[in-house]
Amino acid sequence: MKIAKIETHRMAVPLIKPFKTALRTVKTAETLVVKITCDNGIVGWGEAPPTVVITGDSMSSIESAVKEVLAPFLFKQDFSNYEEMFQGISASCIGNSSAKAAVDMALYDCLSQSCQLPLYQFLGGHKKELETDFTVSVNGPEEMGEDAVSYVQQGFDVLKVKVGKDHVQTDIDRVREIRARVGDDIKIRLDANQGWTAKEAVAIIRKMEDLDLQIELVEQPVKAWDIVGLKQVTDQVDTLIMADESVFSPKQALEVVKNRSADLINIKLMKAGGIYQAQMINQLAEISGMECMVGSMIETKIGITAAAHFAASKKNITRFDFDAPLMMAKEVVEGGIMYAGRKIFLPQGPGLGITNVDIKGGVSLGS
Ligand SMILES: [Mg+2]
């Protein structure tokens, strides 16, 4: 099996409510959709949203990496040697993890279809359903409290609360407000998105421990580059610390697990450059006794379906942050994962299980 055609399409889908973190505000989910058609007619789907403040990848850079770097290489490859294919993607250029991820997931879609297996079974098949958390965007404490209650009423029992945007005292007020409103049975995890210094993080997290706010974990308290600070925080608090923006590649994961700079790793396909590299990160973590979460950027159901197949396939992946498609005001993907409240069911057909992408259903962005 060889690749006959690689197509890209810029798409945008409006969100129900703006998604706000310490790093950015997103009102519309923009993404580059990749469609790979094989010489036997099999079609694979992938996508990559531009997240310049996280990955450095813009819409134009993702598109040109797919068209000018990855496609010319891939047309020469054969799926019977897919090790060469994925090694080649990784070696084709420095960075560009989003473009690599979009192509990687479309190739895994094709591969698992050709083996007549759902992708999660092709990769290991550990579980066929998952439960996702739901994200509370960073706003004033009052608004966040109201949002948290509405998500709990919709059936979510794990809330991922965004903090780290302004004053540290406000972060404590945010979490106190949410805990007071939702009660003790709801799991609360925090994501500071690099918003604190190491000292601020230690002070805030200790304060929350003293207040008995029952925080499950804190994601990326410090800047992505500050691995020393990340370890300081991990060493100085009881609460679990999760690395997100500090770990893109397996090499960075190796440093984190070797030095115990965090307790957990959040793997995202857009950071790792796809499933092939994401598997390496998970294995490094697993042999070091460290569990992983799989999360995502603001992706449509294409990217989240790929991430969910990967996450479901592995025993060591124990936490799931797949709420992005639920934030979208419009459904543009047919097939893929199915949601029932917080539950996610993996499609049982071959590949990703995506049957069509309504490219015209999204807002088409000009190039
Ligand atoms: Mg995060």
From TrEMBL:
<feature type="binding site">
    <location>
        <position position="298"/>
    </location>
    <ligand>
        <name>substrate</name>
    </ligand>
</feature>
<dbReference type="Pfam" id="PF02746">
    <property type="entry name" value="MR_MLE_N"/>
</dbReference>
<feature type="active site" description="Proton acceptor; specific for (S)-substrate epimerization">
    <location>
        <position position="268"/>
    </location>
</feature>
<keyword id="KW-0460">Magnesium</keyword>
<dbReference type="InterPro" id="IPR034603">
    <property type="entry name" value="Dipeptide_epimerase"/>
</dbReference>
<keyword id="KW-0413">Isomerase</keyword>
<dbReference type="InterPro" id="IPR013341">
    <property type="entry name" value="Mandelate_racemase_N_dom"/>
</dbReference>
<feature type="binding site">
    <location>
        <position position="244"/>
    </location>
    <ligand>
        <name>Mg(2+)</name>
    </ligand>
</feature>
<dbReference type="GO" id="GO:0016855">
    <property type="term" value="F:racemase and epimerase activity, acting on amino acids and derivatives"/>
</dbReference>
<feature type="binding site">
    <location>
        <position position="135"/>
    </location>
    <ligand>
        <name>substrate</name>
    </ligand>
</feature>
<feature type="binding site">
    <location>
        <position position="219"/>
    </location>
    <ligand>
        <name>Mg(2+)</name>
    </ligand>
</feature>
<feature type="binding site">
    <location>
        <position position="296"/>
    </location>
    <ligand>
        <name>substrate</name>
    </ligand>
</feature>
<dbReference type="InterPro" id="IPR036849">
    <property type="entry name" value="Enolase-like_C_sf"/>
</dbReference>
<feature type="binding site">
    <location>
        <position position="191"/>
    </location>
    <ligand>
        <name>Mg(2+)</name>
    </ligand>
</feature>
<feature type="active site" description="Proton acceptor; specific for (R)-substrate epimerization">
    <location>
        <position position="162"/>
    </location>
</feature>
<dbReference type="InterPro" id="IPR029017">
    <property type="entry name" value="Enolase-like_N"/>
</dbReference>
<feature type="binding site">
    <location>
        <position position="323"/>
    </location>
    <ligand>
        <name>substrate</name>
    </ligand>
</feature>
<comment type="similarity">
    <text>Belongs to the mandelate racemase/muconate lactonizing enzyme family.</text>
</comment>
<dbReference type="Pfam" id="PF13378">
    <property type="entry name" value="MR_MLE_C"/>
</dbReference>
<feature type="binding site">
    <location>
        <position position="24"/>
    </location>
    <ligand>
        <name>substrate</name>
    </ligand>
</feature>
<dbReference type="GO" id="GO:0006518">
    <property type="term" value="P:peptide metabolic process"/>
</dbReference>
<feature type="binding site">
    <location>
        <position position="160"/>
    </location>
    <ligand>
        <name>substrate</name>
    </ligand>
</feature>
<dbReference type="GO" id="GO:0000287">
    <property type="term" value="F:magnesium ion binding"/>
</dbReference>
<dbReference type="InterPro" id="IPR013342">
    <property type="entry name" value="Mandelate_racemase_C"/>
</dbReference>
<dbReference type="InterPro" id="IPR029065">
    <property type="entry name" value="Enolase_C-like"/>
</dbReference>
<protein>
    <recommendedName>
        <fullName>Dipeptide epimerase</fullName>
        <ecNumber>5.1.1.-</ecNumber>
    </recommendedName>
</protein>
<keyword id="KW-0479">Metal-binding</keyword>
<feature type="binding site">
    <location>
        <position position="321"/>
    </location>
    <ligand>
        <name>substrate</name>
    </ligand>
</feature>
<feature type="domain" description="Mandelate racemase/muconate lactonizing enzyme C-terminal">
    <location>
        <begin position="141"/>
        <end position="240"/>
    </location>
</feature>
